[in-house]
Amino acid sequence: MVKLDGDLDPLFQDLDWAIGQMLIMGWDGTEVTPQIRNLIEDHHVGSILLTAKNLKSAQQTAKLVQELQTIAHQAGHPEPLLIALDQENGGVNSLYDEDYICQFPSAMGQAAAGNADLAYKVAKATATEVSAVGVNLVLGPVLDVLTNARYQPLGVRATSDDPQEVSQYGIAAMNGYKDAGLATCGKHFPSYGNLDFLGSSLDIPIITQTLEELSLSALVPFRNAIATGKLDAMFVGGCGITNPSMNVNHACLSDQVVDDLLRNELGFTGVAISECLEMEALRNEIGVKTGTVMAVEAGCDLVLLCRAYDVQLEAISGLKLGVENELLTTDRIYTSLRRVLRMKKSCTSWPQALNPPGISLLSKIHPSHHALSLNAYDDSITVIRDNEKLLPLNESMHQEEELLLLTPLVKPLPASSLTKSILEAKNKSDAAVSMHEKWVHRDRGAIMSGEGVFRELGRSLARARHGKLLHTSYTANGVRPVHENLIHRASCIIIVTADANRNLYQAGFTKHVSMMCSMLRATGQKKSLVVVAVSSPYDFAMDKSIGTYICTFDFTEMAMAALVRTLCGHIKPQGSLPGTLRKSRKVVKSRQHWLVEAYNRDRDARGLSDLLQSLARASAPAHGFLQTTTVDAFELFNPNIEESHFVVRNSSTQALYGFCSTYYIQGTGIIGSLFVDPTKRNLSIGRSLHRRALRGLAQKRGVKKMQLGMAFPGIFPGIPTDDSAQGLKTWFLNSGWDLQFPRRLANMTIPDLATWTAPEGLLQSIQRASISFDLIHGLDNAESVFTHLTAHANPEVYELYRSALQDTKSCGVVRAKSHGEVLIGTVIICSPGSSLAGFIPSLQSPRSGHLVGGIVAPIVTPSMPQASLAMQGLALMGVRQNKAHKSGRTVLSWIQEESLEPLLAMGFDVLDSFEEFTNAVDNWQDLA
């Protein structure tokens, strides 16, 4: 027995209980077995992984989970079991029930739809459904970047090969899971996106990139997701790493990967979950007992053992031996225990665990989720090329002409009624599989389906076009006489491929048929060819000899139904290739000019609100100001500031694709914000808005300069300085801005005023310098303040102060004076909920509910010797006022670079930072 701190249940004094909470285990079978019951009751295992082998239907799953939780409750577990599930959609869904659980596109399919908000809605819908049957931990989102996209088995499970796009969609999905109440687990750290299958003796894939290369690409989405503070767990992979600075056989067993890279460098404080330690290579090389200890030593908090009871007992024994041999300290055990319990408290409770809503909730939400699924699949279908205008088929073919469908032999996806029927029929195949396939399907027990997987596609297509359809499969045996005969009969041939870059026989077969069609067309015969990639879009993405090429991103029944709707003209596909391929295709569109209109509040306010929400979901953590920006923040209605705002919009749907706010005051034209819908970037919307905004400002009488960034309203004080804004900086540079001489600004905070105390001796230093302070409200006593601002601040800061002094109930100005009552500094003080908070997002209270007091735009005479002390004094007076107004937190807004050091010394933290730029109008002479 060990002595615990008061934050843990006394039960955990028994190390056996603590060790049990560090294991996540599974089993084969759809009912509770004596073995899994024993693990929960006698070995106190606190987390369960459910797979497709455990789950038959939503109702059975809810009953199974409820039974597992009841066993744990009766066995005295202080907290419910974590119930984990892979439910990525596309081809990876452990739970399938066509009556209650909806199927959605894969991660890459969602990215093809070009809408991060769709990814959020899909994730929330998925999480709501699995939560209804008792699941509380979803193993997602996938945060891997497909660095070598064409040859990676991860395929459409990943978003794309663009780290920023992966971040955007990954964070959107994570927010969806979280808002539905589930815990989240990013995967597969450090990356499964660029693996080399070297056929090593370990029989595992290897990462060969250097840490520097990983940092610039693969690690970016993990870093961004961690920075949001919402990622509960991280799944650490079992791949090897070989580069000059690291030689690791299994990432999840390496302290270089888990403790050093994940925790120390990326700052992750959540639960680290190991890859399944039942890997054959690990068992043969190290043994499960030692491997389990190594995983915990490396920094893993939950060790995964998928199904074998004898191996699971071996792992438990290994952890106990690790403690006995003093390889593992009790401190290390309890550190992991606390992390796991913290995650449990965030996603479950005994009332939830023992009484999941089950079928009653699923029945209620199914219609709306089914509609979302249909829309998502329709939006994801992507036509890469249709050079001969073959689509839709009912316009390029007569009804009596024969259509030939050629499909490969593939493994059915778990999310498929066909899979269930095949499993029940036990129609198994002994076909040899490559190392790639072993890796992809190592935990799924997938089987070959013969011709069955696409049979319903053929039937649906025949019904939809009311015409004759011929259908046969093809294999690695190539083009056979049966294929040649059918090709001669048909007017149009559709070839389906599934990962042809890795199943090279499919690529060879398709090219052979394409050549046959070309030769037959040369003799005057009609031989149209359509190629459909139903998994990786990269099969023929760059091969322009394939004139009509369609991508579906998975081959579930829902995807195939959307394909039929596309082929028959029932929908017009809008999807686009993800990542760098999308960008390369959009270069042609970059010269597009969009209609820019004046912003109309009555017409556009709803669209602007939706745009801001989409931006908030897709933004980097450092751009937190987007979370609290409202549509009212942009319009000042100030007689001293001219304002003109512009939009690019869809006049049919009223959706805003972009928004730009501009202001003009005393010879300075200012861009106060420029936003583009994340799903519409790289289409020249921002460029069209930017050009229209500058042209309007350049036409103002007396304009002398242009400014990028604004203090009032303070939505966009300038270009953010974090790493995620480098692309933004390049964009403005290419748009004519000289970015050499920025004014660097920051927002700072004291997050917990209750525990903050002023630095010792600060007040005495201020008094010795004979600096005094007073607080004024209203405009009557403000003449000296405005004189000071005229000399030392921008015109919009002058108007910021004027607005604050007009709000006599919640705002005031503190004046700092030196000898002889000479005014040397000023600052605005705001109580929570002031009128200024509506225009400065950082002053808005966060969701946590802490009231935020504001200290805004301190302006100190720069030449005076005591400038730093005056600044500290103004900040101190502001904090005192904020405390008096019951603020739980202080935000010090619009701080210039030279004032950072003295304020950091007082205990303020930097919240975010920006660079404001001012250029001569001459930079844009072509606008005149």
TrEMBL record:
InterPro entries: Acyl_CoA_acyltransferase, GH, Glyco_hydro_3_C_sf, Glyco_hydro_3_N, Glyco_hydro_3_N_sf, NagZ_Beta-hexosaminidase. Keywords: Glycoprotein, Glycosidase, Hydrolase. GO terms for molecular function: hydrolase activity, hydrolyzing O-glycosyl compounds. It comes from the Eukaryota. The keyword Glycoprotein applies. Residues 16-342 form the Glycoside hydrolase family 3 N-terminal domain. One of its GO terms (biological process) is carbohydrate metabolic process. Belongs to the glycosyl hydrolase 3 family. This is Beta-hexosaminidase. It comes from Cladorrhinum samala. The lineage of its organism: Eukaryota, Fungi, Dikarya, Ascomycota, Pezizomycotina.
